[in-house]
What we know:
There is one protein chain. By secondary structure, this protein is α/β, with parallel strands linked by helices. The chain has a single domain, classed as Rossmann fold, CATH 3.40.50. Helix 1 packs parallel to helix 2 and helix 1 crosses helix 6.
Amino acid sequence: MKILVIDGHGGQLGAQVIKAVRGSFDNVEIMAVGTNSAATMTMLKAGADNAATGENPVIVACRSADIIIGPVGIVIADSLYGEVTPAAAAAVGQADAVRILIPMNKCDNIVAGVPDLSTSSLIEDVIKKLKQII
């Protein structure tokens, strides 16, 4: 099972996801793609098997991922303060993968009907959803 984790800014959300996935599953490959080098390095240090940075790695990694995990902004062009390019958002949206989008109500993207939960609660729900899929 190939899991792609995409994150921007400092990569803290992606790092927490990677640590939680590592702690819950043995036979998964985790590819991390950061929208910037700081995010990539943070996720690599958290335990990703492979990592890359930028738009083209998002596009390429989406082609082979079974599951894509990241903040909801990864499917919205110009989100994460402009770090998600239109091509990267389209690649995530068009990927033949299950997407687990974390509803971070930030960067002017607010998901209606979703309470403002702590990051740890959101990560717990990601793992719960992964267990249903894997």
